[in-house]
Amino acid sequence: MNHSSERLWTKSFITLTICNLLLFIGLQMTLSTLPVYAKDSLSATSVQISLVTSLFALSAIASRLFAGKAMEKGGRNLLIFLGVAICITAVAGYYWSGTVTVLLLMRMLFGIGFGMASTAFPTMASDVIPIRRMGEGLGYFGLSTSLAMSAGPLIGLSLLQGPGFSSLLMCTGLAIAIILPLGYRLTRSLPAHHREPAPAIIPGPKGNVFHKLLIPGLLNLLLSVSYGGLLGFLALYGQEAHLDHIAYFFLFNAVAIVIIRPVSGKIYDRFGPAALLIPGSLFIIGGLLLLSFASSTAALFPAALCYGIGFGSMQPALQTWMIQSVDPRQRGTANGMFLNSLDFGVAIGTMILGTVASYNSYAEMYRYSALAPLLLLVIYSIVLITKRRSRSVSSKVQVSR
């Protein structure tokens, strides 16, 4: 065996992981803070607050439909630089958003740029990760996304409550801008066959790809629904429950993810997705229920720990499952569908849970949000039972022959 071909921590992989971390930190610093800014400074209604997150998600989804096709034709470098430039422009536009309408337009613009760049990075990462270490490699790469999902809101809320909105936007723009020089060095240093693959026609009907990705995409959507409730309403829940340090939930969540991610990738490579998705769903349900009853900062720790273990183990498992289900040339499409299902879940979560919160308390809203991972668990259990029955029938037929 050529051990050099099995190396995971190459310069390209490290650079891609850092770029992805910076991109998602820039996103997460604003996802949790703009709803608060819209309510306090622009007097936004509950529906408008939910649109701050959902319109971004929907525009990112539309952008990735284009990005996935562009990557199949070899346009990944253009997607990186154009996407990052659009994101920086949108962040600057937040500063001049004097009305909710302008703010929502800037969120849509940010979603377009984010959709482009966020599709390119994981696809390029899956190209440089050794096949036999795909689960482990995507687990580590996905750690950048999960850490950003935890650290970004913590940093953003701290900046908003401290130095203010202008400092928040400055730090967000700086984090995304650093990607430009790193991306330039990356595209210059990648091996020729990784830079821009030659366009190729994928054999077989297009429907086959989406059929293979349908179940893991649906499960990822359900996983993301509860996370939409955290991003859109956790700060407001803190105000309702008189929790002065609600942002610590994201910190404790990050600690749990750092602990579980290196282990979860190896578990996936050895045992497959079931070993992570079933217990992960139970951890997320427990975390949401614990959060809904939290009455002190100390109570946030077990809630965040449970949620972080569940989310941090399930998300990379679903991404790896989707990537391994398609031809290597279709990884851009698979990554696009993974991220689209995530964003669509967040969009649905903020809209539905925002409506629930308008008739109930935020605490009750989080209890209702636990139904999403419960439904995920039920659907996946049905899929497993169906597969086992099919294999049993097939083996009996072969024996009879």
Written account of the structure:
The protein is mainly α and 401 residues long. The chain is built from 16 helices and no strands. 84% of the residues lie in helices and 0% in strands. α10 runs antiparallel to α13. It starts with 10 loop residues before the first helix and ends with a helix.
What's the gist of this structure?
The chain has 401 residues and is mainly α. It contains 16 helices and no strands.
Uncertain runs are 195-207
Mean pLDDT: 83
Distance between the termini: 39 Å
- H-E string: HHHHHHHHHHHHHHHH
> Using only CA atoms, what is the Rg?
21 Å
Number of DSSP helical runs: 16
The helix/strand class is mainly alpha
What is the 3D form?
globular
What is this structure's SSE topology?
Elements: H1 11-31, H2 34-42, H3 46-72, H4 76-95, H5 100-128, H6 134-161, H7 165-177, H8 179-189, H9 192-195, H10 207-241, H11 248-271, H12 274-292, H13 297-324, H14 331-359, H15 362-369, H16 371-400
Helix pairs in contact: 1-5, 1-6, 1-7, 1-8, 2-3, 3-5, 3-14, 4-5, 4-7, 4-8, 5-14, 6-7, 6-11, 6-13, 10-13, 10-14, 10-15, 10-16, 11-13, 12-13, 12-15, 12-16, 13-14, 14-15
